[in-house]
């Protein structure tokens, strides 16, 4: 193995303090598909066997940590079996990670995808939940974007909890005034002459990242960069009171979702 190959970011040590789920044993992407119920796992042709093994262990630990943080069962992580995961294949040029809404695939680049897993997972969730959350939503819609356009939610207690999440991301508390997060995201776009940071689905994915990173369970393969990165210094991640409120509402929604699913399974 050459030093150039070893310099691949997958060989770095990613800090985590969560429970031991594997007890030191290796897992495969096939194990991950079976345990969480993913539709499939795809590994790129340029990924070596050693890289694949390291990545599978990182994926497994990160997904288990996400499941613990959200307090949900495995099928939520795979979005009820609809989500495909990919490593070293299916990404986009100049992008470390990507969610393909057409194929419902979460793809991490081999050399730079680490830390983006929670962000891309929320894109998948945001799309998956749209038809269950909002009236007249289509299969290719993101719930965040439709909610911002004042689409009516479907009456259900869980949906009211989810609406509170979107509300505290996009609006100031008890107000119709747009939040500081949305204002700063739009300002970042203006400074860079683009429209990306203020996309509703991107704003929400970054808010979700912040919630995950603030949890006592830390996993740098799952999430990183919401506090000290160059992007964080632009103000495009929630800050201060808004960040705390968003975390509280995400915690409430996902914990109640997990409880409801556990209760229905009995």
Please give the structural blueprint:
Layout: H1 3-6, H2 29-36, E1 40-43, H3 49-70, H4 74-77, E2 84-87, E3 97-100, E4 105-108, H5 117-128, H6 130-133, H7 143-148, H8 157-170, H9 180-192, H10 200-214, H11 230-233, H12 240-265
Helix pairs in contact: 5-10, 8-12, 10-12
What would you say this structure looks like, in words?
By secondary structure, the chain is of the alpha/beta class. The chain folds into 2 domains: 3-113, no CATH class; 127-265, no CATH class. The protein has 12 helices and 4 strands. The chain has a 4-stranded mixed sheet with strand order 1-2-4-3, with helices on one face. The chain is globular and about 50 Å long.
Number of helices: 12
Uncertain parts = 1-5
Class derived from helix and strand content: alpha/beta
Shape: globular
Q: Note the beta-strand portion.
A: 5-15%
Helix content: 40-55%
SSE order, one letter for each helix or strand? HHEHHEEEHHHHHHHH
- Biggest β-sheet strands, sense, barrel: 4 strands, mixed
Give the mean pLDDT. 93
Strand order of the largest sheet: 1-2-4-3
Please tell me the total number of domains. Answer: 2
* Strand element count: 4
Properties at a glance:
disordered N terminus; 4-stranded mixed beta sheet; 2 domains; single chain; alpha/beta
Write a short abstract of this structure:
With 266 residues, the protein is of the alpha/beta class. The protein has 2 domains: 3-113, no CATH class; 127-265, no CATH class.
